[in-house]
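2024-03-11 09:14:02 INFO queue: dequeued item DUF488 domain-containing protein, len=142
2024-03-11 09:14:02 INFO validating residues
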Amino acid sequence: MKIFTIGFTKKTAKQFFLNLKKAGVKCVIDARLNNTSQLAGFTKKEDLKFFLQEICNIDYLHLPNLAPTKIILETYKNTKNWKLYEEQFINLMTSRQIETLDPKIINNSCLLCSEETPEFCHRRLVAEYLYAKWEQVEIQHL
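2024-03-11 09:14:37 INFO prediction written
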């Protein structure tokens, strides 16, 4: 099983869509809590769904249960305490039992959020959580 991750910040539309296409992604799984913000540019929900299908023949699925809660996000924004954020988000994923997702949905899919790199991003935590729960998972950050 392969799980890709990508963030859209500081990427042009060309870079973003070519990265997904070259990797062979079958579905983009939107792991953002808010996917309709004007700040999302070409990755606003309906626009992204259209572009993915038209440009890359890639499916789109919004799974907000893979996103942190507003409270967790606001706490991190106020404290910049990554360790606390990580702990709270891992506890949230555990309580939500995200490992019960159908692996067929996740395989060859790409977890999407806004962060430019995966180091301080929840998409990495989701991928690593599933890696720990499932067998034979490979993670590739685009």
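2024-03-11 09:14:37 INFO annotate: Residues 2-141 form a domain with the Protein-Tyrosine Phosphatase; Chain A fold (CATH 3.90.190).
2024-03-11 09:14:38 INFO item closed
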